[in-house]
Automatic annotation (TrEMBL):
UniProt-listed InterPro entries: ATP-grasp, ATP-grasp_carboxylate-amine, ATP_grasp_subdomain_1, PreATP-grasp_dom_sf, PurK, PurK_C, PurT/PurK_preATP-grasp, Rudment_hybrid_motif
Protein name: N5-carboxyaminoimidazole ribonucleotide synthase
Keywords on record: ATP-binding, Decarboxylase, Ligase, Lyase, Nucleotide-binding, Purine biosynthesis
Catalytic activity: 5-amino-1-(5-phospho-beta-D-ribosyl)imidazole + hydrogencarbonate + ATP = 5-carboxyamino-1-(5-phospho-D-ribosyl)imidazole + ADP + phosphate + 2 H(+)
Taxon lineage: Bacteria, Bacillati, Bacillota, Clostridia, Eubacteriales
Keyword check for Iron-sulfur: no
Length: 373
């Protein structure tokens, strides 16, 4: 999606990906085939590039720092990435800067976890400090009896993963703000979006979020402060909790374009993908206004009991729906729960957008072609 936007501006792309059939490979000008942690391949990519960027944060931040010291231009910077890659380091840094987030404690032992429960109360979240996404690496501990199982489930057999405990927030809504920081520290914010998750995977986004003007102002200020203290360059996504009392707390930060911002391709004057390119290439940031009053997005996750080549069911229904747009990512294998595409809907009211998303959600499926489920 970033390449599609960049090609409009005449930008050439080299892609590092271990999969010879990765969706970006068919669009890019050059493919460097290699693992995201293969330093030789990362250097090969750097040698043929003017600027390096990434849309996946589980990469070798330390090596990116080495490349920066050699003069390579990388955005977001290794500094931003290394802070965000470790949730405990990130939270400690943000707390020191005075930003609002749930209470948290480092957990190195069962005794630490016991003490964390006494301080943070139950339910309580236990998180791996590195490597988690879409709910992986997290465990909800409902009561003291669940401590030991959660601890060893996350630690695993190798016992090398570091953990932290986090206060469980009884939130009213989950929202996110897509923020871009560009040349000279200029910042552009997209309207807060309201997100719904299922099994810790984003299911639906509707924008603007159905929150008060006071909550919106808090969310936008928190997003601006976050990207500034991280000295971010490019697009960052700040996921937040809105509490029952109307407070806004940081939940997660992604140093990249984000699933909750996919609606911007059709719904915004400047998509998050074009905005990211503008920011990292020191171009003026674009207008973040919505083209229509409301927009929404649903993820299309892989269905069916088997893996196989994907078949898209319900294309007719999408194309017959006013304001609806289908995106199929051309991943060569469908797996249950894998993000295979998304649908965007724009409209003049929140109700109209939600109604269209409701109608399409059960009709559009991506399944293994042999399953027809």
């Amino acid at each position: 999606m970033m390449i599609l936007e960049g090609k409009k501006m005449g930008i050439q792309f080299a892609v590092l990906d271990p999969d010879p059939q990765a969706p970006a490979v068919s669009l890019g000008d050059t493919h460097v085939m290699g693992d995201y942690h293969n330093r030789e391949k990362i250097r090969e990519l750097a040698d043929i590039s003017d600027v390096l960027t990434y849309e996946f944060e589980h990469i070798d931040g330390a090596f990116l720092k080495d490349l920066e010291e050699e003069g390579m231009v990388i955005y977001p910077s290794s500094r931003s990435l290394l802070i965000i890659q470790d949730k405990f380091r990130q939270n400690r840094y943000l707390k020191e800067k005075g930003l609002h987030l749930p209470r948290f404690l480092k957990v190195d032992s069962l005794q630490d976890l016991k003490e964390a429960g006494e301080k943070l109360g139950y339910p309580m979240m236990l998180k791996a400090t590195t490597g988690g996404y879409d709910g992986k690496g997290n465990a909800l501990i409902l009561d003291p009896d669940g401590r030991e199982g959660a601890f060893f489930d996350l630690k695993g057999e190798k016992d090398t993963l570091e953990l932290m405990a986090e206060e469980y927030i009884q939130y009213h809504k989950e929202i996110s703000v897509i923020a871009a920081r560009g040349d000279g520290g200029a910042i552009a914010l997209y309207p807060p979006s309201e997100n719904q998750h299922e099994d810790s995977i984003l299911k639906r986004t509707v924008v603007p979020a159905d929150v008060s003007s006071e909550v919106q102002a808090k969310a936008e200020a928190l997003a601006k402060d976050t990207i500034e203290v991280l000295e971010g360059m490019g697009v960052f996504t700040i996921e937040m909790f809105v509490t029952l009392e109307g407070e806004v707390l940081i939940n997660e930060i992604a140093p990249r374009v984000h699933n909750s911002g996919h609606y911007t391709i059709e719904a915004s004057e400047t998509s998050q993908f074009e905005q990211h390119l503008r920011a990292i290439l020191a171009l003026p940031l674009g207008d973040t206004s919505l083209k229509r009053p409301y927009a929404g997005m649903i993820n299309l996750l892989g269905r069916g009991k088997k893996n196989g080549s994907p078949e898209v069911l319900g294309v007719q229904e999408v194309l017959e729906t006013k304001g609806a747009h289908l995106h199929f990512y051309e991943k060569k294998a469908v797996k249950f729960g894998r993000k295979m595409g998304h649908i965007t809907v724009t409209g003049d009211s929140r109700e109209a957008v939600n109604n269209s998303l409701d109608d399409l959600e059960g009709q559009v499926l991506i399944v293994p072609d042999q399953a027809h489920e």
